Amino acid sequence: MTISHNYQNQLVQDRFALKLTARLSDACDDLPYEVTERLRAARVQAVGKRKVVTSQVVTGTAVSGGTLSLHSPDDGFSFWSAIASAIPLLALIVGLLGINAVLSDQRATELAEIDSALLTDTLPPSAYTDPGFAQFLKMQRESAR
Q: Phi and psi dihedrals of 52, rounded to 5?
């Protein structure tokens, strides 16, 4: 059985805190009355200034990846907030569809230009698939240099 590293650290910290409080409690008996009264007044003042912890009721949780989100009943999630949260998703979908349409139009235009160049050329389209023709074109380029 393995104990996690965080749990071991917590145990070490708890032991240290117990030893420290025991030493402080032992030394408290030897202090004069004035000092113990000032310490008591400081404790009362510190307790009075502490932050008040408020608690909320959580009605649900949602885990996404490594993130946990809590939902409370007073989130104010109404019809309008649902619409407002759907607007960015709708904008993303419209943007992606627009990009897809533009890219497919560009691709169709490129293919049409290649097809028209092949069909209007003096060579038949089968010449472009001939391996000897590719070698002929390479020799033409080298001789032109």
A: -85, 125
Q: pLDDT tens digits for 14-32?
A: 899 888 878 877 777 778 8
Residue 107, Cα to own-chain centre: how many angstroms? 34
In one-letter notation, the amino acid at residue 135 is Q
Rounded to whole angstroms, what are the CA distances from 88 to 92, 101, 145?
A: 6, 20, 56
Tokens, residue 141: 């380029």
Q: Where are the beta strands (DSSP E) in the chain?
A: 60-64, 67-71
User: What residues are paired with 71 via a beta bridge?
Assistant: 60
Please give the share of the chain, as a percent, with pLDDT higher than 90: 19
Please state, in angstroms and rounded to a whole number, the distance separating the CA atoms of residues 101 and 93. Answer: 12
Sequential DSSP letters for 24-68: HHHHHTTS-HHHHHHHHHHHHHHHHHSPPP------EEEEETTEE
